[in-house]
Specification:
By secondary structure, the protein is mainly alpha-helical. Helices cover 82% and strands 0% of the residues. The longest helix is centred in the middle third of the chain and has 39 residues, at 136-174.
């Protein structure tokens, strides 16, 4: 069940990164502009956020499994629709649907774990999901690049459709209903508003959720800017960039693995704080190197960057578990707000870190420590009074 939910959570990086190598070919094949093709990414990201906001609260009233099954079916069908798109308008629409259904599936995967586990157990499960899902951003570009030649960009979408079909089979065979009828809310607009009010009034939830969102903001600042920083600023080759990207991803996954081993002896809140401190430390050194001293020394940039990216392995799983543990009566709504904030911030970060051009590391070096500070402030101000062992 956990592997199925992790695969569902990985649908976003798979659907984003696998087809990126084929964007120029798509523009030629569909006789359109690069800007129009990039809209397929924008609409997918928008769908991810909207899908989570809509489906998360609804699932608190109707249960998880049926909606999750429907979402995965639509994900598979929309992947096939992208593969046969006759024009760019059709492809943009299909990507929006793919994003909506993918966002619904992601929010329900998190809610299923929140329904079944609490505290350190939940943190361990979310960290394991992150380990499995964390592999997706590393392998997706490699898979996409390898497939582009033999099967073309349409073939990549067929692969995503097959991945969706595997998710459908996994839900049918391995994912039971995790929200029993006695724990569901009545549904309807009044119930949805009540759930939202219940969640946003919990300041401890907000503190942990904001730590999660700002941690992801730092990660996405790195993902968006690092290809240009590593290659244009540091002068490394594309193959060397792939190695840097893989090493940083390995650091993040290793941190998540350490988290799963320590939980039980060390509380999730303590590990989360440690992760935020690591993010602040790596971000501060990166800021001093790139902004204060205007250095382009490879190691003075790559080492603090590794520390900052690795810290996310301590932040995401623990912050998710702690936030969801605060709103167990509306886990779907809580998961939805976190997911919407996550991808909404990601959509803003991507253009911001490129605002100064492709030949500077300054925007990334400002964004990463800024998100670290925001995560720390959220934890300090909004989670006061919680037991250290929580």
């Amino acid at each position: 069940m956990l592997c199925v939910l992790a695969l569902i959570s990985a649908i976003a990086p798979l659907s984003i990164d696998m087809y990126l190598p084929g964007l120029p070919l798509m523009a030629d094949a569909l006789d359109t502009t690069a800007a129009s093709v990039q809209l397929t990414l924008t609409t997918f990201m928008a769908g991810l956020g909207i899908g989570q906001l809509i489906i998360g609260p609804i699932s608190d009233g109707l249960g998880r499994r049926r909606i999750l099954l429907t979402a995965t079916i639509i994900t598979a069908l929309s992947g096939a629709a992208c593969a046969v798109a006759p024009n760019i308008e059709f492809l943009i629409g299909a990507r929006l649907v793919q994003g909506l259904s993918g966002g619904a599936a992601i929010v329900l995967a998190r809610a299923c774990i929140a329904d079944r586990a609490r505290g350190d157990d939940a943190a361990k499960l979310f960290s394991i999901m992150m380990i499995i899902g964390g592999i997706a951003p590393v392998v997706a570009p490699l898979i996409g690049g390898a497939l582009l030649g033999p099967v073309g960009w349409r073939g990549i979408f067929w692969v995503l459709a097959v991945a969706g079909a595997v998710m459908v089979a996994g839900v049918v065979l391995l994912v039971p209903e995790t929200l029993p009828p006695e724990r569901r809310h009545g549904g309807g607009l009044k119930s949805l508003i009540s759930n939202l009010r219940y969640v946003v009034r919990n300041q401890h939830y907000l503190g942990y959720a904001l730590a999660f969102v700002f941690g992801f903001g730092a990660l996405f600042a790195y993902i968006s800017a690092s290809p240009f920083v590593v290659q244009n600023v540091l002068g490394l080759s594309p193959s060397q960039f792939s190695i840097v990207f893989a090493v940083n991803a390995t650091g993040m996954v290793t941190a998540a693995m350490i988290t799963t081993r320590l939980l039980g002896r060390v509380g999730a809140r303590t590990l989360l704080r440690f992760g935020v401190c690591l993010l602040l430390a790596g971000g501060a050194v990166l800021f001093c190197t790139s902004v204060v001293f205007s250095s382009t020394n490879t190691w003075l940039i790559l080492v603090p960057l590794f520390v900052a990216v690795s810290s996310i392995g301590f932040i995401m799983g623990n912050a998710t578990a702690l936030a969801q543990g605060e709103v167990t009566n509306a886990a779907g709504t809580g998961s939805a707000l976190m997911g919407a904030g996550q991808f909404g911030l990601a959509a803003l970060v991507s253009p911001l870190v490129g605002i100064a051009g492709e030949d500077t590391a300054v925007p990334m070096a400002i964004a990463i420590p800024t998100f670290g500070v925001l995560a720390a402030v959220a934890l300090v101000l909004l989670t006061r009074g919680k037991a250290a062992a929580s």
